[in-house]
Amino acid sequence: MKGKINIKKISIILTTFYLIVGTLFYFIGGEQLRIGKSNSSLSYQIVDSPVGEILNNTKIEQDFSVNADIINGISLKVATYARINKGNLFVNLIDKQSGSSLFNQVVDVSNLKDNSDFFLNIKDRINGVKGKELALIITSDISDSNNSVTLYTAKDTNNFPLYINGKLNQNNLSFSVECGEKLWFGEYYWFIFVAGLLLLITYIINLMLKQKNEKQSLSLNIITAFVKYKFLLRQLVERDFKTKYKRSVLGILWSFFNPLLTMLVQYIVFSTVFKSDIPNFPVYLLSGVVVFNFFSEACGMGLMSIIGNASLITKVYVPKYIYPISRVFSSVINLLLSLIPLLFVMLITGTKITFSILLMPFGLICTLLFCIGMAFILSSAMVFFRDTQFLWNVVSLLWMYATPLFYPETIIPDKFSFILKINPMYHFIRFIRITILQGVSPEPIAYLYCIVFSLATLLIGALVFKKTQDKFVLNL
């Protein structure tokens, strides 16, 4: 069979796919791959007292410095004296050493809300500010005190001086500075891209040499098995999918209605009873429900894959891993159908669709690989320990509540935050939600989490399955 495998054709397809996807990924990923959040951000939110009316003879200077390369945003705590005012504030950020202006904005005070945080409109990131002495200069053109606004101060903890009309104030302005850092991944992306291409070409050449010399190779064995048993795999997937909706009146339509009805019930409960304030809650909820339902269904079906095919396993020789894989892939059909209602809800709620949605398949593929690994583990355990199905029902229920499907992750106390970090489904769902709801690429570390959890689980599952599969027949 090895001679029938066209490695050259497969190699051309893989190399072309790598070049196209790798190039598109850089541009779709955008600045999220090149710039990340910094731990050096400043925040002074503990309000102490206002600075007083800001009129045309008032000059406020807040000095500060940041230990980061980039400033992404600046916000100020403002008060309007509970009225609508007229006039402008002039905000200027300068480099004190060179005297150059890094950013300036004219703020219409009639748009300000009382006792709120006002975010300056920094469209382009302010670069090269690390360690520099910076000053935020605020003046006004308002002459009538009945139209004036004020800024709040906060207790000084970093000894950054605040001057009001040249006089030193004992506090800081109540302001926040969101900083960013250049990420090495984005900075060296093309070097990584070329290195990956060279590794791929080297691996392909190695496969060709092994095929030519008729040597054993895990990759060649996997490709051979796929070619040899692809018809059987397709038949098993079709059988499992059709069996699920056998004698059902609505049949395949349940793939549409099930996630929608689940979302509708949970939306009513958490948006009215518990008053969820999550932005775009319908899409937030449905995206989590769709992905977790796939995980739950794939693992549940994979768990019974060996036991359910006992008659075939004891009579016909077929690689046993085909059975859990076929169960997971039959669930993939439901997943793809469930994405249609998700798209429908996105359109209804006016969710902005950007090119970042093209990154969503990465999260789905990682979830798929994770489910295959889990199916290997669960199906193996089920053969030797039939109570596995009942234990899994409890574990999957706990897993659902440990994953932020219908609640924001911010409500989890810090002492329990580790639960999210070790929860693979949290990372997969978070990845997918960022591409949909925020319209940007997740940060590079998010890709790493997804890859590690999916591949590690797949590897562990494959090892467990391989070690135990020879004993299946004795326990069926």
How would you summarize what this structure contains?
With 476 residues, this protein is α+β, with helices and mostly antiparallel strands.
- Largest sheet, strands/sense/barrel: 9 strands, antiparallel
Domain count, please report it. Answer: 3
- Mean pLDDT level: 87
State the low-pLDDT regions, or none: none
N-C termini distance? 31 Å
Helix content: 40-55%
Number of strand segments: 15
Order of SSEs, N→C? HEEEEEEEEEEEEEEEHHHHHHHHHHHHHH
What is the global morphology? Answer: elongated
* Rg result: 29 Å
Given the helix and strand composition, which structural class is it?
alpha+beta
Strand content: 15-25%
Helix count equals: 15
Task: Describe the protein in words.
With 476 residues, the chain is of the alpha+beta class. It has 3 domains: 1-34 and 183-215; 37-182, Jelly Rolls, CATH 2.60.120; 217-475, no CATH class. It has helices at residues 7-29, 184-187, 189-212, 218-244, 254-273, 281-303, 305-308, 310-313, 322-348, 360-384, 388-401, 418-421, 424-438, 444-468, 472-475, and strands at 35-37, 42-43, 47-50, 60-64, 70-79, 88-95, 101-108, 116-119, 126-127, 134-140, 150-154, 162-164, 167-169, 172-173, 175-182. Strand 12 (162-164) and strand 13 form a beta hairpin. Helix 4 (218-244) packs across helix 9 (322-348) and helix 13 packs antiparallel against helix 14. The protein starts with 6 loop residues before the first helix and ends with a helix. The mean pLDDT is 87.
